[in-house]
Design a protein that fits this description.
three-stranded antiparallel beta sheet; 15 helices; four-stranded mixed beta sheet
Length: 279
């Protein structure tokens, strides 16, 4: 089931941030939620592989991974040891893959939901933050996968544990069918992954519509629609919390992007020209 919650105030944003599951066993707030922010409410949950390769994704995925591994081996000779590592590293550098990006942090998701390459669009369209509970999905895992999570007392696979149970795309797709998917914690290959609190869902070929899957297989999925009228307020609040490109994309690129927005002048062209003349 997918619940839609419309947020039209900062109070609603605070409820999104603070709505975390309480673990009675340890007396702590330890949720199993994943979050994903999108700048346009009309954008669907889909992988970059399907967007890029469309109906040919099954045929083109192995070829693309082989080519990536061949040409990237100079930078990382260990890529050939694991198809899952090929996906994680490739995804990190922009290769279309079957991995769906998530974060454990609602603040990071809010950043992506309230970021625009064109700042003028920030108050022109509603955005969205998705949240799902990984425990809902883990219930459908095949036994050999579930046993690994139980053995390691975790909800999430690592590259090593996933490689141990499925060492090929074909085996993984056969195991999962259209009934389940694995959630994966990537290795900390650079500071960006650490700062973004990044995680991935490994979407099998049998799941053709992620949103329909969540509707039919989960009980705690929420779709937070953030009204365009408050997006600038949310954006400025996040920047005050140091949740900006300066932190999420460490380096001069992220710094420059954050500074561009900080000094962005809202209003009409005439108002911008007057501001420029006066300063």
């Amino acid at each position: 089931m997918i619940e839609t919650v419309v947020i039209d105030s900062i109070d609603g944003i605070m409820r999104l941030i603070s709505d975390q599951a309480y673990n009675e066993d340890i007396g702590r707030l330890r949720s199993a939620y994943f979050f994903r922010g999108l700048p346009d409410v009309r954008f669907r949950l889909t992988t970059s592989l399907r967007m890029n390769c469309k109906e040919l994704h099954r045929e083109l995925e192995p070829a693309m991974l082989r080519a990536f591994t061949k040409y990237a081996s100079m930078d990382d000779p260990t890529l050939s040891s694991s198809v899952w590592k090929q996906m994680v590293v490739g995804q990190h550098y922009g290769l279309p893959t079957r991995l769906m990006d998530w974060t454990r942090s609602p603040l990071i998701a809010l950043h992506f939901a309230n970021s625009e390459s064109n700042f003028d669009k920030l108050d022109k369209r509603d955005s969205v933050v998705w949240r799902f509970n990984m425990k809902d999905v883990n219930r459908y895992l095949p036994d050999k996968y579930a046993r690994i999570l139980e053995r390691d007392k975790t909800f999430i696979f690592s590259l090593d544990t996933l490689s141990a149970v499925a060492d090929s795309i074909e085996q993984y797709d056969a195991d999962m069918g259209g009934d389940a998917f694995v959630n994966l914690e990537p290795p900390s290959i650079d500071q960006r992954i650490v700062n973004q609190y990044s995680f991935f869902s490994v979407i099998p070929a049998g799941i053709t519509d992620i949103e329909r899957y969540l509707e039919e297989h989960t009980e705690h999925t929420v779709r937070y629609v953030i009204r365009k009228e408050i997006r600038w307020d949310v954006r400025d609040l996040l920047d005050q919390f140091n949740v900006s490109e300066r932190m999420i994309f460490p380096g001069l690129d992220g710094l420059s992007r954050a500074l561009a927005r900080h000094y962005f002048v809202k209003g009409s062209d005439a108002e911008r020209r007057r501001y420029t003349d006066e300063t």
